[in-house]
Amino acid sequence: MEKVEEYQITIDNITVNVAILGGKGQMHQYCVEIPQVAPATKALLENIKHGLIRDVVVSTTEILDPKAINAMKKKFGERAEQILKTKVPNIPPETALLLINVLMQDMLGLGDIEYLTADENLEEIVITSSKEPVRVYHKRYGWLETNVQLPSEEQILNYANIIGRRVGRQITTLNPLLDAHLLTGDRANAVLFPISTKGHTITIRKFARDPWTMTDLISNKTCNSKVLSLIWIAMQYEMNILISGGTASGKTSFLNVLMPFIPPNHRIVSIEDTRELQLPRFLYWCPLTVRQPNPEGKGEVNMLDLLVNALRMRPDRIILGEMRKRDQAEVLFEAMHTGHSVYATVHADSIAETIQRLINPPIEVPANLLVGVNLNVVMFRDRRKGLRRVYQMGEFIPSTEEGVGGVRPNILYRWKPTEDEIVEHSSSLRLFEELSRHTGMTLMQIENDMKKKQSILNWMVKNSIRHVDKVGEIMRQYYINPDAVLEMTGERVSD
After folding, report:
1. Alpha-helical runs (H) found in 36-134
2. Residues contacting 448, CB < 8 A, separation 6+
């Protein structure tokens, strides 16, 4: 098979090659160059492992504390180096480093799977059983079979137990399902045999190390500066926004992109199953995450608990990772109607479907409360082409059908696939009126403000300002001195 692409990844000071193989009429394959260890060396490492377990004392706090992993690695690594040099006095330093890293990955990590988690081009890693190769979802090539295959079901179970211990949970035949996260923040799900009929299964959804920013979205045509300028002014003046879309459509990523639009003096409280949001350092942000119950079924802290508690923390803005249940929605919409600015995601493929999803089980929000949502952005993912787009952006409009109060969608912008462009669809019936009421600005002044914001966004794209903290710094400066930022762009728009 031909090499379609080749690049390198680095993990624990070890650099390895990755090759994407394929050819005409062939499925692409993912090959990672994992360091090979001879049987005699494996036996030596196994002996050292037993010595480490005997010699190095690790507390329960260290095992359960994600922040302690580096200290644990250092503690084990130093002792492993001592034992290794005792057994092999003349071992070259680079070989010793390689073997110690292999040992640490096996003891404290997920072995060969660690190389896959280190690849920023991967979004998903799936272990189906020991009888099949590991599969990955690559950002550019989609689903690929890898050259990695775990040797046994016992090994997969061991990795599932390692993941579970990190969050204080057990996975057993009586509790065969596990939802957790890795030390990197990546989501992990495990299902044991025979619930998973092929064998033990682990699915890892990668957490973005370098998250998208608004600059990226404009550059890759996921969105455009005009749509983002409208969202910016809506967020500046505390409008409520829902992000809809299917699984892996980029809902949370898009939500994360929007956060720098929040003024720096506003208190933000976020609520997530697993920490995914990465906000700029300048924002006044308190992130909260749920906690699963312990093996005895105690100690659970769920989304509703955190949502109710968040309202007691005097937040200006509330972010809910995903709205799934009726009780969550009731509290969230009550927060909207009591003056809190709210942002959340929900599974739905259009604005019309978002309305139906909200008013029907299991969420069941009364239709008259939906007018609390000022903007609904719908994300779309084309898996075949590997692209994500803002599919629709619109608003909920009060309507009366057969005397029953409800809402209907009004689409402001939509994606036109034939031209791969986001185009205007209809005029706003609510948003600009509400912006005018909140700001005291006329329609013309609002449009001029949007043009100014659009010029700043385009300037950031032109100058490749894309890191989350650098983008955040521009936003912070704008809220302190907007004229100075506009002058910096060289595209000042007159009022």
Report:
1. 39-55, 60-64, 69-87, 93-108, 113-117
2. 493, 494, 495
Amino acid at 82: Q
Give Cβ neighbours of residue 394 (< 8 Å, ≥ 6 apart). 351, 375, 376, 409, 410, 411, 412, 413, 425
Residues with Cβ within 8 Å of 329's Cβ and at least 6 positions away in sequence, in order, are 323, 358, 363, 364, 365
Distance between CA atoms of 31 and 18, rounded to whole angstroms? 6
Give percent of the chain above pLDDT 90: 59
Q: Which amino acid is at 133?
A: P
Q: How many other CB atoms are found less than 10 A from the CB of residue 49?
A: 16
**DSSP bridge pairs for 31:** 19
pLDDT of residue 244: 97
Bridge pairing between strands 201-205 and 187-191: antiparallel
The token pair that represents 392 in the structure block: 């629709």
In the prediction, which pLDDT does 60 show?
Answer: 60
Tokens of 346: 């929900």
> How many whole angstroms separate alpha carbon 261 and alpha carbon 411?
22
The whole-model pTM stands at 0.80
Contact between 446 and 452 under an 8 Å Cβ cutoff? The reply is: no
Residues facing 245 on adjacent strands: 347, 379
The residue with greater pLDDT, 53 or 394, is: 394
